[in-house]
């Protein structure tokens, strides 16, 4: 784990809210010279703290009107079966995130599709067709209350 000081955390917080900010603007916001700010950014990237820069796309605006969370239970938990399932999930573009869980279900998939018909195709043709899937339970999102990929960095400044 990288050692982060208050300035590093401020840099990360600013970047989480505005990933397109210029180095000069970032330096001004965190009270550093542009060269010192750039050195810190490069260190955060090389240390693996900053793992990339992305754009946030509105799913509705690109025709992905249905969002679901799908809980999956596997029939077997041996490494070969798990690796095969993980490999399949990584190849499915509808799945934007997948988490291995504790409890009665093994995985939680976050899925975006155009509509219920697309979801049905995903479920029947891909997920239920995948060997090793014992049970699936789906919940559809009615309304997004909060959507953020920003981490709660202010809690770390103590």
UniProtKB/TrEMBL annotation:
Query: What biological process terms from GO does the record include?
Result: regulation of DNA-templated transcription; response to amino acid
Keywords associated with the record: DNA-binding, Transcription, Transcription regulation
Record protein name field: AsnC family transcriptional regulator
SUPFAM superfamilies reported for this sequence:
Dimeric alpha+beta barrel (SSF54909), Winged helix' DNA-binding domain (SSF46785)
Q: Which domain of life is it from?
A: Bacteria
| A Pfam family assignment | HTH_24
One GO molecular-function entry: sequence-specific DNA binding
Where does the HTH asnC-type domain start and stop, copy by copy? 4-65
Tell me the classification of the organism that encodes this protein.
Answer: Bacteria, Pseudomonadati, Pseudomonadota, Gammaproteobacteria, Lysobacterales
Q: Which SMART domains match?
A: HTH_ASNC
Question: Which PROSITE patterns does this UniProt record tie to the protein?
Answer: HTH_ASNC_2
Instruction: List the GO cellular component terms.
Output: cytosol
Which InterPro entries does the UniProt entry name for this protein?
Answer: ArsR-like_HTH, AsnC-type_HTH_dom, Dimeric_a/b-barrel, Tscrpt_reg_AsnC-like, Tscrpt_reg_AsnC/Lrp_C, WH-like_DNA-bd_sf, WH_DNA-bd_sf
